[in-house]
């Protein structure tokens, strides 16, 4: 850790570095750097620098008390799922961690995440969603949406522009009451129809399959 540079006043989670202090010598003889930090709750605590840098410690312990009191809530579970997805050892790390998807410093603190959520439309029937799937979790890139909207905002979602509106193809058909014609309309688009023509042109039930082969 000798190459790691930290300064007094640097903030990690709820902890602010006051100063570096004497190193801790472990049984192997190795000496580990430590820092004295002040937590947002006002308490001072001595922290191993490697644990602070790697996010293993984010408070004096008060944040864990908060989590224990709210661990049963849907909002906390949403926060915990977000944090878990972005860890290197997550089973689908190729979708998140290895693509650079991370959690902002603000959102790593559950209390700050909760405050943002309650001020930005959180409801128990909504899900946390990233607006841009190529960016991480932050206040500028997150919102709360329905499960349907969430499913239709993935990297593999097929988007179309219909009447100057850029929208998920499947979500658009649901809105227009044409969900059952998904395959037929998609085939039209693949055959060269404009999106508007493919959707607006009436579909002849029972004859479409034979017509497309002509």
Number of helices: 9
Q: List the strand order in the largest sheet.
A: 1-2-3-4
Helix content: 25-40%
Average pLDDT level = 82
Series of H and E elements: EEEEHHHHEEHEEHHHH
Q: Cα-atom Rg, whole angstroms?
A: 25 Å
Based on Cα principal axes, name the global outline. Answer: elongated
Q: Which percent band covers the strand fraction?
A: 15-25%
Largest sheet: 4 strands, antiparallel
Low-confidence stretches: 207-214
Secondary structure category: alpha+beta
CA-CA gap between termini: 71 Å
Can you count the beta strands? 8
What distinguishing features does this structure have?
214 residues; alpha+beta; two-stranded antiparallel ribbon
Helices and strands in order:
Elements: E1 11-12, E2 15-25, E3 31-39, E4 44-48, H1 49-53, H2 62-70, H3 74-85, H4 110-119, E5 127-130, E6 142-145, H5 147-151, E7 159-162, E8 165-168, H6 169-176, H7 182-190, H8 195-200, H9 208-211
Q: How would you portray this structure in words?
A:
This protein has 214 residues and is of the alpha+beta class. It is built from 9 helices and 8 strands. The longest helix is centred in the middle third of the chain and has 12 residues, at 74-85. The chain is elongated and about 80 Å long.
